[in-house]
Amino acid sequence: MQITQEDTLYYKYYIKDRMVRMDSYDKGNLKEPESYLMFYLDQQLIYAFKPSKKMYVNLMNKPYHSTQDDNFRILKTTNTKKINGYKCYQWRVRNKEQNTEVSYWVAQDNFDFFEDFLKLWNRSEKHASYFLRIPDIKGYFPMLSEERTTLREEKMTLKVIEIQKQQLSRTLFEVPADFKNYDH
Hints:
This protein has helices spanning 113-121, 126-131; strands at residues 2-4, 8-16, 19-25, 35-40, 45-50, 55-59, 72-83, 86-95, 100-111, 139-148, 154-159, 180-181. By secondary structure, the protein is mainly β.
């Protein structure tokens, strides 16, 4: 769930091997996704789907490049709390020039996909870009992240509501046969 001052958005992630599917839901309908993205990490491909139109498109992604910026202060604390059954550690990333601090509550498990997922998606949102500045993040996943100004005013919160470990069908990550490619 993504919470901002303007809106609350709901997402559901499915992960299998090196594939990630991210469903986006309209507030009024949390049963059928309004749209979804599929990320093929090894092939470096992203597809966007619109089920109501039975259409999909290949998204062009710009390669991720790490930049050197000395304005970031990274603190991996020993603070812990239990979230979704996981012992989570608090990591904080602050940039005074951008008037922003993001606090992450991270769990360690079989989350090896997450760093590669963020790099492929290459979002400019601070939750993603700040997380990629933290060293040694392989296997970690933020169960909760809170973006605030340096004066502690809330900007955005991302939180995992539930995690279910189960076998997923490969068809969940395939282009449906009746969908048309918008590019053609």
